[in-house]
Design brief:
By secondary structure, the protein is an all-alpha fold. It has 2 domains: 30 residues; 113 residues, Cytochrome Bc1 Complex, Chain D, domain 2 (Orthogonal Bundle), CATH 1.10.760.10. It is built from 7 helices and no strands. The protein binds heme C.
Length: 150
C-alpha cells in the first residue's frame, strides 16, 4: 500500500517535470530563462503602458522598494532564493512582471512558465503586498537596470 502511494507520487512528479521539459523543447529548446514570445497574461494587470524612455524618478523609487521587498530573495545577476531579475524585462512582458508582484497567486496557479519556476526553485513566491504604484516603479527600476547592463 505505502509502496504504491510512493510510486504514484514519483510518477506524478516525473510527469510534471516532463511537462516543463517538453514545453521548453517545443519552443526551440529555450530554457525557462530565455526570451519567450508574448502569451496570455494571467492576473489582474492586463495592460501596462511603458514609454520608449525610462522615467528616472520612478526608477529611483522602484529601486528602494526592490531593495526592501525583493532583495531578500532576488539578485540582479545571479540565481538566489528566486531567479536573477536584472534582465527579467528582456525575457518577460511588463504585464507578467507586474502580475508576479501584484497577483502572485494567480500567476503561480495559471502561468506555465511560473509553474516550472516553482518546481525549479522549490517554493512559491509569497505575495509581497506591494501597491500598484510601487509595483509599477519596481518594473521601471528593472527596465532601467536592464538598459544599463546590456
Ligand atoms: C521570499 C522570497 C521572494 C521574495 C521576497 C520575492 N520573490 Fe520573486 N520569486 C521568488 C521565487 C522562489 C520565484 C520563482 C517562482 C516561484 O517559485 O514562485 C520568484 C519569481 C519571480 C519572478 C519571475 C521571474 C522569471 O524569470 O520569470 C519575478 C518577476 C519576481 N519574482 C519578482 C519579484 C519582485 C519584484 C519582488 C519584490 C516585490 C519579489 N519577486 C519578491 C521568491 C521571492
Amino acid at each position: 500500500m505505502t509502496k504504491s502511494v510512493i510510486k504514484a507520487a514519483f510518477l506524478c512528479l516525473a510527469l510534471t517535470l516532463a511537462a516543463c521539459a517538453s514545453e521548453q523543447k517545443e519552443e526551440n529548446q529555450e530554457s525557462i530563462f530565455e526570451v519567450k514570445k508574448p502569451k496570455a497574461t494571467y492576473g489582474k494587470i492586463q495592460k501596462v503602458d511603458v514609454g520608449p524612455t525610462i522615467d528616472a524618478t520612478m526608477a529611483k523609487a522602484g529601486k528602494e522598494t526592490f531593495e526592501i521587498k525583493c532583495g531578500a530573495c532576488h539578485k540582479y545577476d545571479e540565481r538566489y532564493v528566486g531567479p536573477a531579475l536584472g534582465k527579467v524585462t528582456e525575457r518577460r512582458t511588463p504585464e507578467y512582471v507586474m502580475n508576479m508582484i501584484l497577483d502572485t497567486e494567480t500567476m503561480i496557479e495559471n502561468d506555465d512558465t511560473v509553474k516550472c519556476l516553482v518546481q525549479e526553485f522549490m517554493m512559491r513566491m509569497p505575495n509581497q503586498s506591494v501597491d500598484e504604484k510601487d509595483a509599477r516603479a519596481v518594473l521601471e527600476h528593472l527596465r532601467d537596470y536592464a538598459e544599463h547592463h546590456k
